Amino acid sequence: xxxxxxxxxxxxxxxxxxxxxxxxxxxxxxxxxxxxxxxxxxxxxxxxxxxxxxxxxxxxxxxxxxxxxxxxxxxxxxxxxxxxxxxxxxxxxxxxxxxxxxxxxxxxxxxxxxxxxxxxxxxxxxxxxxxxxxxxxxxxxxxxxxxxxxxxxxxxxxxxxxxxxxxxxxxxxxxxxxxxxxxxxxxxxxxxxxxxxxxxxxxxxxxxxxxxxxxxxxxxxxxxxxxxxxxxxxxxxxxxxxxxxxxxxxxxxxxxxxxxxxxxxxxxxxxxxxxxxxxxxxxxxxxxxxxxxxxxxxxxxxxxxxxxxxxxxxxxxxxxxxxxxxxxxxxxxxxxxxxxxxxxxxxxxxxxxxxxxxxxxxxxxxxxxxxxxxxxxxxxxxxxxxxxxxxxxxxxxxxxxxxxxxxxxxxxxxxxxxxxxxxxxxxxxxxxxxxxxxxxxxxxxxxxxxxxxxxxxxxxxxxxxxxxxxxxxxxxxxxxxxxxxxxxxxxxxxxxxxxxxxxxxxxxxxxxxxxxxxxxxxxxxxxxxxxxxxxxxxxxxxxxxxxxxxxxxxxxxxxxxxxxxxxxxxxxxxxxxxxxxxxxxxxxxxxxxxxxxxxxxxxxxxxxxxxxxxxxxxxxxxxxxxxxxxxxxxxxxxxxxxxxxxxxxxxxxxxxxxxxxxxxxxxxxxxxxxxxxxxxxxxxxxxxxxxxxxxxxxxxx
Amino acid sequence: xxxxxxxxxxxxxxxxxxxxxxxxxxxxxxxxxxxxxxxxxxxxxxxxxxxxxxxxxxxxxxxxxxxxxxxxxxxxxxxxxxxxxxxxxxxxxxxxxxxxxxxxxxxxxxxxxxxxxxxxxxxxxxxxxxxxxxxxxxxxxxxxxxxxxxxxxxxxxxxxxxxxxxxxxxxxxxxxxxxxxxxxxxxxxxxxxxxxxxxxxxxxxxxxxxxxxxxxxxxxxxxxxxxxxxxxxxxxxxxxxxxxxxxxxxxxxxxxxxxxxxxxxxxxxxxxxxxxxxxxxxxxxxxxxxxxxxxxxxxxxxxxxxxxxxxxxxxxxxxxxxxxxxxxxxxxxxxxxxxxxxxxxxxxxxxxxxxxxxxxxxxxxxxxxxxxxxxxxxxxxxxxxxxxxxxxxxxxxxxxxxxxxxxxxxxxxxxxxxxxxxxxxxxxxxxxxxxxxxxxxxxxxxxxxxxxxxxxxxxxxxxxxxxxxxxxxxxxxxxxxxxxxxxxxxxxxxxxxxxxxxxxxxxxxxxxxxxxxxxxxxxxxxxxxxxxxxxxxxxxxxxxxxxxxxxxxxxxxxxxxxxxxxxxxxxxxxxxxxxxxxxxxxxxxxxxxxxxxxxxxxxxxxxxxxxxxxxxxxxxxxxxxxxxxxxxxxxxxxxxxxxxxxxxxxxxxxxxxxxxxxxxxxxxxxxxxxxxxxxxxxxxxxxxxxxxxxxxxxxxx
Lengths: 701, 701
Hints:
Two copies of one chain form a homodimer.
Chain A: H1 2-7, H2 9-32, H3 39-79, H4 86-122, H5 124-160, H6 165-209, H7 221-259, H8 263-283, H9 294-324, H10 328-351, H11 356-364, H12 369-382, H13 385-401, H14 412-426, H15 429-451, H16 456-506, H17 519-560, H18 573-644, H19 654-690, H20 692-697
Helix pairs in contact in A: 2-5, 2-8, 3-4, 3-7, 3-18, 4-5, 4-6, 4-7, 4-15, 4-16, 5-6, 5-7, 5-8, 5-15, 6-7, 6-17, 6-18, 6-19, 7-8, 7-14, 7-15, 7-16, 7-18, 7-19, 8-9, 8-14, 8-15, 9-10, 10-13, 10-14, 10-16, 11-12, 11-18, 12-18, 12-19, 13-14, 14-16, 15-16, 16-18, 16-19, ...
């Protein structure tokens, strides 16, 4: 039996990956059968597609240059014996597949926006099916490519190069670093693009000129729609590819440390394959009637995700027992799964306008924009309590149930348990991502419906889909953040293992004093806790800067193009797209480079103990900041929508104006800075692992 | 010589305390000799005084009830042998003196606001001298009472009760808990009052009705001025009393742990006495000419503070050598002193409109309130880097120079070094607080000048003084935050010592696993890092709620009192004062109670290892959040003032309106939540220390 687990399972998981990719292909073909609608719609859709393509092409060029530099650095380190030769290549593939995930997602999203709008002419259910199928393409591409990449490397390293277990996981962690770097570029760049366009379009269009959202007279409207695709779709694809892969490989690495065998390493891969199966079954259950009632639509999606979650909860019990002969680890997986759902529910509670917090927030708009800003910030900060408690409970449970003790000697199984919790949380990513990625498609569809002047009933339908997308996006963010915290912790544990391995090779011993009263650990903790703040600041500032340039350009066009406001002349959409592209690409480099250099610099000064402090500090404060910013942003957005539904004076009232200010502040919070921090905290750990040998050899303290 | 140090020095420091108190009395008599001006000014001043008195009376009633409850709890714990009988009494005195510091400050501030305004009629220099003397009363009362309290307890416990060194410091730490509890009530309650009044007055008065700040027609104008006194003065007094006392007693406690003798315990007291001397000399150097030029005024104040800092830097070298026979500890003191000045300079750089960040922030107002909010938040977040690095450097330096090692066995001297750095940072508190406390006096003077319709030249002079006050307040905040971080760390070390002591008495051993990979420590860290966020959220929400009630009341008066806008009828000032009083007192209880219950609850669940994680997490995230919020708020305030000086359209322009929104959001940031967090992180540690025996005996994990 052990023979089967160690030698055949990797091929099984590879097969699972291929099934996911085939399913993505199948969903794509389903979407493409639908019509793109009339000529205007086609034209708009082509403009969006062109803009998104142009952006991604330029983004990939810059990223490729970065990867080439890093490749050279890693090769040099391999020459000096600080790394194995697999590392540079693993790094490249991780980046490649992460980028590919985003690219495929963008392709299908831009191909299905007009189709969704057109399907909404016929019925809401049809619209939902097109948009959701497009989301599925993205979801299953991400999990398929992720599991494919891991399985192939595993097979290659084990059966072709015949490496030991710990060497295999070592190389695989590097490919996580590649994926994280790519994801950070995509999230930051795309996030700046989309929010600069959105903020810019809103500030001049909605607030100054008083024209509705997505009005074709607004010169930034195409850029805004392009942004949804390059930020919310391509960025999210790369991001979640990274999360998925990161959780699996960190669990594999800790499994090897805990059991010394390949069995525990194989379990996360098998869970991932099971999750793909469960997700696929779940997608077939998503369909709705004709009511645009939020609750009914949500129920349609929930039916799919909940069924998948239950399936995986049931299936993973026998599988875990079969592979590890130990049922305790099942509870870690279950804890992760439940924690993910619970954080999602909390996120929804704090950000959906069906609950009290967002309703209360909407009421603060009556005393102006200052009070809604204060209210939103305190709402977001307050919303961190429950997720922190949920994740803490998951950590304690998965650690102690799996047999981890307080003394560090018997910690390895407990740490493996924590890593498995992260895998459990992300196991149904196929379908949760599908429900998440369909949102921007619906958003775009609404834009196209508006610009093409379709019947208001169509816009109502796309709005219903879009609004639901906000809720599922909130849930998705909960998963992303929760899994990021658990994975980051697992990676810190892997880092310590790596340092021990390096020390053993050098014939030295590791001073395992990661005690909080060790000043090196403590200052590392301080600096680490500061990093997410700095990162959030830089990305927000970038959005602000880019948005200001859009504002200036839109104002210029309104002023200089005669007949624009009367709808007699066309604005110059391309100049706004180009402006967003240039500024977001310029701004995306610095934050990412800081994220990569910081752990190396801290390591060279404070040593590996300082790095452990850094990683723990960044994880704690990053987790909090990410939740705070995402939830504040989400609540502002929905408070605005709630007011638009007619309360507190409705559209155009002073309350609404105040709420628009809140929403505008929330845009970079929830779609640029917040989600980037999730990637940041993992990237820091992965970079530390890759540069562990260097830091071990050279450091001041 | 040792005999002299151990037996006579406490009397010397007591004498130093008395000198400080005498100096405060002398400054007070100087202030009271000036005239309060004409009848209108007297009348206004009396209203403010009455409001402030009424508020404090009701606040102290509530706080007294809280202290009575805590006294009973502590007595019960003493009955069960979980505490010594000194603890309940020490707790009460700490609270009493902290409250007294605030009370005296408020008394002198409300006595000197009209006097400052009247002195400004004559000359700027005269105005500065009155306001600065009032600040000095507060500064020297705080340090005098602090050192008095510590010296008396020390003498009592040592010479009357003849306790051992560790028992002395144990009791003294409790009195820190009393001071911190009182300080938190004062800061939170006063902070909510002042900002509710300020925000409420601005939102309706400036934004809606379009009347200038401090216009007598605004019904909330007296409440606003009362707020300056109960929040910025009484709150700050209690706060800094707590900081001062906390740094000294935590250093004393660690000194005993490191040296096992009273010598190291006496050093912080002696440094404090020296600091009083240096501060007194410094105050004589503060005087200015007739120019309202900011730089010249600032130079006048800086002459005083810098001279004091240099004096203490010189004097502490021989004293340290004399007491400890070891010059290394001097460098820890110096590191703290320099770090304090450096953090102050960074704060000034980020918040003063003479530098780039605030100027850039002011420019973002041109694209509306959303961009200035985003800009201010990112400015504040970005401004955390340098203070974090400065404090980290101070920690590493003071730890390693004083002979702390990486292995925990030889850590005690290093930790003592960190605590001494905090003492060094606060040693010149007498004068830095004087320059800080004079700000609200000048602010009030400006209000009185406006309300009494004095010559615009007078208002110009008070504005010059007030504006300078913003800068010195920023510097003061830097000191408060920096010292809070260092003191909090010292208190964590004291907590671990306390746990060891408790264990020894119980005949058990302590598992000293405060390792970051211990899941109990880690979850403690997560929860601790979350606390400042929750605390900030609660206090901001309170300000928002209270402000909204003021807005409603002011709108009501504008509508119902005929002739009010034309200046023919008087508004009902008292109702606004009363409203602020009630809502701030109601809102101040919950955050403080949470701060006290949280470490106990976490301790009972996660055990003492979890508590150590909690304290470290709260310190790291609290430090960051406090700096972020203070600096964002300060920068918004000054960006608004900068625009009022005529750039970006000046007063009344759209840019100015946007800047007012920023300033309004910044108000609770910088004057309620931010400064409260400093107290919070120390209170958490002190509560943990007092309840250590309970937690050691009963806990789940």
